[in-house]
Amino acid sequence: MPTKFIIPTRRIRDIPSNDINYAIHVRMEDLIQLDEESWCVGENINHMQFLRKENWDGKGKIESFDEGDLVLWMPKTIEIKGGKFRLLWKGQYKVHKTFNNNIWH
Fold first, then answer.
1. CA 77, CA 93: separation in Å to the nearest integer?
2. pLDDT given for residue 44 in this prediction
3. Are 50 and 77 in contact (CB under 8 A)?
4. Which residue in 100, 73, 104 sits closest to 89, CA to CA?
5. What are the extents of the domains in the chain?
6. Model confidence pTM above 0.70
7. Which residues contact 47 (CB under 8 A, 6 or more apart)?
8. What stretch of H or E contains 102?
9. CB contact at 8 A, 81 and 88
10. Number of helices followed by number of strands (H, E) in the chain
11. Are 90 and 73 in contact (CB under 8 A)?
């Protein structure tokens, strides 16, 4: 029963079987290179996620209304009844007073 074994790769397969230490060294180099490439891929994924988030966040815009403006309101819970012909917006509502941080009454 063998006590040592090697997972063969193309580079290790061509190494003579009597030089086990060299085969292990070559395999360790392959694993280190694989780990470095995996880390680089992870960094690229994180960077792309950050860029996508910045792009998505930049699409929103802050609306500001003055007193007397007419506005529409979209409630958070929309009834399913009516299918594609249902009303998504309610209103017209008149802005009576504006507060800080885009809060209206």
1. 18
2. 95
3. no
4. 73
5. 10-59, 70-104
6. no
7. none
8. none
9. no
10. 2, 4
11. yes
